[in-house]
Amino acid sequence: MSTRPLWIRHASQLVTLAGGSQAPLTGKRMEELSIIEDGSVWVEDGIIRFVGTDQEARAAYRDRLEEAEVIDAAGKLVTPGLIDPHTHLVFAGSRENEFDMRLKGATYMEIMNQGGGIHATTEATRKASPETLYAESKKRLDQFLLHGVTTVEAKSGYGLTLEHELKQLEVAAELDRTHPIDIVSTFMGAHAVPRDYRDDPDRFVDYVIEEMIPEVARRKLAVFNDVFCERGVFTPEQSRRILEAGRAYGLLPKIHADEIEPYEGAELAAEVGAVSADHLLRASDKGIAMMAEAGVIAVLLPGTAFFLMAESANGRKMIDAGVPVAISTDCNPGSSPTVSLPLIMNLGCLKMGMTPAEVLTAATINAAHAIRRGHEVGSIETGKQADITIFDVPNYMQLQYRYGVNHTHTVIKAGVKVVEGGRLI
Ligand code: NIG
Ligand code: FE
Q1: Contacts 24+ apart (CB under 8 A), 371-375
Q2: Ligand 1 pocket mutation pick from 160, 335, 336, 344 by most atoms within 8 angstroms of CB
Q3: Residue 2's pLDDT is what?
Q4: In the chain, N or C terminus with fewer CB closer than 10 Å?
Q5: 3 state SS of 422
């Protein structure tokens, strides 16, 4: 069934990010946005068919102009749909009590070691029915969409038993089927050592490797395998075992690395050939150099540093060292309860020394590569899926300059308008 073509016209800036579909952009190329003024995009059957100036589009489609549904983007910024490559989307409950405790001086790890933190959300998530989990997570997805996000990665890791990890992953799969946002799933059974394994963490690592990974892979419920490599959680040795076991079952490695303390997580990411290493607040210079050499994408999460009142990762240094950088919310109930990827991009500029052009690359084409979708989404190019966000600002710099405001006006997902005038359709 063919649908009516969609014609986006007169964009004051059409940021295409063309040319990065094969590999993430690095170094100076992160500032090459490939902007078209008075830009035009022709979409048919969910696919981008034409990208150029308005004049070029009129010439190319002169016999069919009347057919199209027109979106007038005059005075507005048109970009690829934003992509969030690191979320803990599916969970139950919230932890504002811990926020209050942290504001009074408790640390994130202290709270976790006392049975709060990830353990508290695990308890709530285990108790929740799939229907409740679906409903709570769907609300967050709707909010993501309203902030211009069209694809998210979603991790498990609040079940910590096979049964409950599968429940979380199945809810993510159901949301992927039923919600406009595309979801790419990551298995993260190694998110914390459950309280009942406290005295023998290696036994839990064995359980993850021998029982969880094979079943998750058999059911095809995840593309990636992630581990929280952190002092007091999983050691680099345990993390390596878990990531290699996942790879043997076809799950690609990702890692929460050097978030709270330096722990040679960046080095490990390079050694195991991880697709991405995420957080990296305390990554060593050697680890950064090794990531650049191995082509590991740094997924930076400045909202987490902001919310934990810690110093952000040094995005500037990583880009200058040649590491491909992506950016993400880390949306989760403990260290970053936000869905505002635009705000995270603001923080990328203000706290990580990145430029407005670099954060846009980091939240589109490089984010797409961090979840292995660079060939389908993340740029506005002929043949790609028509995931497009229109912001009510005249140029990409204003998206960062007028910070803390949701400028999302229209969102198009696979050629279908899903947000208009800042509201869900
Ligand atoms: O990425 N660091 C581990 N995981 C999450 C936080 C999860 C939570 O606190 O619930 C993170 O920061
Ligand atoms: Fe995380």
Answers
A1: 371/83, 371/85, 371/151, 371/153, 371/184, 371/223, 371/224, 371/275, 372/184, 372/223, 372/252, 372/275, 373/83, 373/151, 373/182, 373/184, 374/20, 374/21, 374/22, 374/23, 374/24, 375/21, 375/22
A2: 335
A3: 63
A4: N
A5: coil
Q: What is the number of the ligand 1 atom nearest to the C-alpha of 304?
A: 12
- Residues of the chain with confidence (pLDDT) below 70: 1-2
pLDDT digits (tens, 9 = 90+) for 238-296: 999 999 999 999 999 999 999 999 999 999 999 999 999 999 999 999 999 999 999 99
Q: Which atom of ligand 1 is nearest to the CA of 121?
A: 10
pLDDT for 3 equals 82
Whole-prediction pTM: 0.98
End-to-end CA distance of the chain: 22
CA distance 412 to 144: 13
Tell me which residues have their CB closer than 6 angstroms to ligand 1.
88, 117-118, 121, 228, 256, 259, 304, 330, 332-335
Ligand sitting nearest the alpha carbon of 233: 1
Percent of the chain with pLDDT over 90: 99
DSSP 154-177: EE--S--SHHHHHHHHHHHHHHHH
What tokens does 424 get? 């869900």
